[in-house]
Specification:
By secondary structure, this protein is an alpha+beta fold. Helices cover about 45% and strands about 20% of the residues. The chain contains nine helices and nine strands.
Amino acid sequence: MTTSVQNKIENKIKSMKRGSIVFPSTFDDIGNVEIVKKSLLRLENKKFLIRLAHGIYLYPKQDKLLGDLHPSIEEIANAIAERDKARIIPTGITALNKLGLSTQIPMNIVFLTDGAPRSIVVGKRTIKFKRTSPKNLAVKGEITNLIIQALKEIGKDNVTAEQLEKIKIHLVKEKQEIIEHDAKLAPVWISKIMKNN
Protein backbone atom coordinates (compact mmCIF):
# COMPACT_ATOMS: atom_id res chain seq x y z
CA MET A 1 0.00 0.00 0.00
CA THR A 2 2.59 2.56 1.16
CA THR A 3 4.94 1.61 -1.69
CA SER A 4 2.33 2.37 -4.33
CA VAL A 5 1.57 5.73 -2.62
CA GLN A 6 5.30 6.46 -2.57
CA ASN A 7 5.60 5.62 -6.28
CA LYS A 8 2.65 7.86 -7.13
CA ILE A 9 4.20 10.69 -5.09
CA GLU A 10 7.58 10.18 -6.74
CA ASN A 11 5.99 10.23 -10.20
CA LYS A 12 4.00 13.36 -9.39
CA ILE A 13 7.18 15.11 -8.19
CA LYS A 14 9.08 14.00 -11.31
CA SER A 15 6.44 15.75 -13.42
CA MET A 16 7.22 19.03 -11.59
CA LYS A 17 10.11 21.26 -12.44
CA ARG A 18 13.27 20.97 -10.38
CA GLY A 19 13.42 23.52 -7.61
CA SER A 20 9.75 22.92 -6.71
CA ILE A 21 8.80 23.14 -3.06
CA VAL A 22 6.32 20.49 -1.90
CA PHE A 23 4.24 19.89 1.22
CA PRO A 24 2.33 16.83 2.42
CA SER A 25 -0.86 18.68 1.31
CA THR A 26 0.49 18.70 -2.28
CA PHE A 27 -0.40 15.00 -2.35
CA ASP A 28 -3.86 15.09 -0.73
CA ASP A 29 -5.26 13.34 -3.79
CA ILE A 30 -2.85 10.38 -3.43
CA GLY A 31 -3.24 9.12 0.12
CA ASN A 32 -3.97 10.03 3.71
CA VAL A 33 -1.66 12.49 5.40
CA GLU A 34 0.21 9.95 7.57
CA ILE A 35 1.10 7.69 4.62
CA VAL A 36 2.09 10.74 2.56
CA LYS A 37 4.38 11.99 5.37
CA LYS A 38 6.07 8.57 5.65
CA SER A 39 6.55 8.44 1.88
CA LEU A 40 8.12 11.92 1.84
CA LEU A 41 10.45 10.86 4.63
CA ARG A 42 11.53 7.82 2.60
CA LEU A 43 12.07 9.98 -0.48
CA GLU A 44 14.24 12.26 1.66
CA ASN A 45 16.27 9.25 2.86
CA LYS A 46 16.72 8.24 -0.79
CA LYS A 47 18.16 11.76 -1.40
CA PHE A 48 15.34 12.33 -3.92
CA LEU A 49 13.99 15.21 -1.78
CA ILE A 50 15.62 17.64 0.64
CA ARG A 51 13.77 18.57 3.84
CA LEU A 52 13.87 22.36 4.20
CA ALA A 53 11.83 22.56 7.40
CA HIS A 54 9.16 20.59 9.19
CA GLY A 55 6.69 19.46 6.49
CA ILE A 56 8.46 21.42 3.72
CA TYR A 57 10.46 19.58 1.07
CA LEU A 58 12.46 20.54 -1.99
CA TYR A 59 12.76 18.70 -5.29
CA PRO A 60 16.31 20.00 -5.79
CA LYS A 61 17.76 21.65 -8.83
CA GLN A 62 21.32 20.49 -9.33
CA ASP A 63 24.33 22.44 -10.45
CA LYS A 64 27.54 20.69 -11.58
CA LEU A 65 29.71 22.94 -9.44
CA LEU A 66 27.46 23.93 -6.58
CA GLY A 67 25.50 20.71 -6.09
CA ASP A 68 21.92 21.09 -4.83
CA LEU A 69 20.56 24.61 -5.24
CA HIS A 70 18.39 25.82 -2.38
CA PRO A 71 15.56 28.32 -2.78
CA SER A 72 15.76 31.71 -1.08
CA ILE A 73 13.92 32.27 2.18
CA GLU A 74 11.50 34.44 0.23
CA GLU A 75 10.74 31.70 -2.30
CA ILE A 76 9.94 29.35 0.61
CA ALA A 77 7.68 31.99 2.19
CA ASN A 78 5.89 32.53 -1.13
CA ALA A 79 5.34 28.77 -1.53
CA ILE A 80 3.84 28.59 1.98
CA ALA A 81 1.58 31.58 1.24
CA GLU A 82 0.45 29.99 -2.02
CA ARG A 83 -0.34 26.72 -0.25
CA ASP A 84 -2.33 28.57 2.44
CA LYS A 85 -3.98 30.87 -0.14
CA ALA A 86 -2.70 33.78 1.96
CA ARG A 87 -1.22 37.10 0.92
CA ILE A 88 2.15 38.17 2.29
CA ILE A 89 4.33 41.28 2.16
CA PRO A 90 7.95 41.56 3.33
CA THR A 91 8.61 44.05 6.12
CA GLY A 92 11.43 45.92 7.78
CA ILE A 93 14.99 45.01 6.92
CA THR A 94 13.85 42.69 4.12
CA ALA A 95 12.04 45.57 2.38
CA LEU A 96 15.07 47.86 2.90
CA ASN A 97 17.35 45.17 1.51
CA LYS A 98 15.22 44.58 -1.60
CA LEU A 99 15.22 48.29 -2.38
CA GLY A 100 18.98 48.56 -1.91
CA LEU A 101 18.55 50.84 1.12
CA SER A 102 20.39 48.40 3.38
CA THR A 103 22.98 45.69 2.85
CA GLN A 104 21.98 43.93 6.05
CA ILE A 105 20.56 40.46 5.49
CA PRO A 106 18.07 39.62 8.20
CA MET A 107 18.40 36.27 9.96
CA ASN A 108 14.74 36.42 10.82
CA ILE A 109 12.54 37.46 7.96
CA VAL A 110 9.12 38.88 8.81
CA PHE A 111 6.11 38.93 6.49
CA LEU A 112 2.75 40.53 7.13
CA THR A 113 -0.06 38.14 6.19
CA ASP A 114 -3.80 37.60 6.23
CA GLY A 115 -3.06 33.91 6.86
CA ALA A 116 -2.23 32.14 10.12
CA PRO A 117 0.50 33.76 12.25
CA ARG A 118 3.44 31.38 12.81
CA SER A 119 7.22 30.96 12.75
CA ILE A 120 9.04 28.44 10.58
CA VAL A 121 12.68 27.58 11.14
CA VAL A 122 14.63 26.97 7.93
CA GLY A 123 18.23 26.02 8.69
CA LYS A 124 19.64 28.85 10.80
CA ARG A 125 17.00 31.35 9.73
CA THR A 126 13.40 31.94 10.74
CA ILE A 127 10.42 32.99 8.63
CA LYS A 128 7.82 34.76 10.72
CA PHE A 129 4.29 35.38 9.46
CA LYS A 130 2.63 38.20 11.37
CA ARG A 131 -1.11 38.72 11.11
CA THR A 132 -1.99 42.20 9.83
CA SER A 133 -5.03 44.30 8.95
CA PRO A 134 -6.57 44.02 5.45
CA LYS A 135 -5.59 47.70 4.85
CA ASN A 136 -1.88 46.78 4.87
CA LEU A 137 -2.50 44.09 2.27
CA ALA A 138 -4.68 46.29 0.04
CA VAL A 139 -1.57 47.91 -1.48
CA LYS A 140 -1.44 46.98 -5.18
CA GLY A 141 2.13 47.65 -6.28
CA GLU A 142 5.09 45.47 -5.38
CA ILE A 143 7.42 48.48 -5.37
CA THR A 144 5.06 50.74 -3.41
CA ASN A 145 4.51 47.92 -0.93
CA LEU A 146 8.26 47.65 -0.28
CA ILE A 147 8.64 51.43 -0.06
CA ILE A 148 5.86 51.76 2.54
CA GLN A 149 7.32 48.96 4.68
CA ALA A 150 10.91 50.24 4.29
CA LEU A 151 9.96 53.79 5.29
CA LYS A 152 8.02 52.51 8.32
CA GLU A 153 11.19 50.67 9.35
CA ILE A 154 13.41 53.77 8.88
CA GLY A 155 11.00 56.06 10.73
CA LYS A 156 9.68 59.52 9.84
CA ASP A 157 12.58 61.57 11.23
CA ASN A 158 15.40 59.28 10.11
CA VAL A 159 15.00 59.28 6.32
CA THR A 160 18.11 60.61 4.59
CA ALA A 161 18.26 62.56 1.32
CA GLU A 162 20.20 59.66 -0.20
CA GLN A 163 17.44 57.20 0.74
CA LEU A 164 14.81 59.52 -0.74
CA GLU A 165 16.78 59.64 -4.01
CA LYS A 166 16.86 55.83 -4.18
CA ILE A 167 13.13 55.66 -3.42
CA LYS A 168 12.41 58.13 -6.26
CA ILE A 169 14.36 55.93 -8.69
CA HIS A 170 12.20 52.94 -7.68
CA LEU A 171 8.94 54.88 -7.89
CA VAL A 172 9.62 55.79 -11.52
CA LYS A 173 9.21 52.07 -12.33
CA GLU A 174 5.70 51.97 -10.82
CA LYS A 175 2.53 53.06 -12.66
CA GLN A 176 1.21 56.43 -11.55
CA GLU A 177 -2.32 55.15 -10.81
CA ILE A 178 -0.85 52.44 -8.55
CA ILE A 179 1.22 55.03 -6.68
CA GLU A 180 -1.89 57.20 -6.21
CA HIS A 181 -3.97 54.23 -5.01
CA ASP A 182 -1.30 52.98 -2.60
CA ALA A 183 -0.38 56.44 -1.26
CA LYS A 184 -3.91 56.68 0.18
CA LEU A 185 -3.23 53.55 2.25
CA ALA A 186 0.11 54.76 3.62
CA PRO A 187 0.71 56.96 6.68
CA VAL A 188 0.48 60.67 5.73
CA TRP A 189 4.25 61.32 5.81
CA ILE A 190 4.95 58.30 3.56
CA SER A 191 2.11 59.31 1.25
CA LYS A 192 3.77 62.74 0.75
CA ILE A 193 7.10 61.09 -0.18
CA MET A 194 5.33 58.81 -2.68
CA LYS A 195 3.42 61.66 -4.32
CA ASN A 196 6.48 63.89 -4.63
CA ASN A 197 8.42 61.52 -6.85
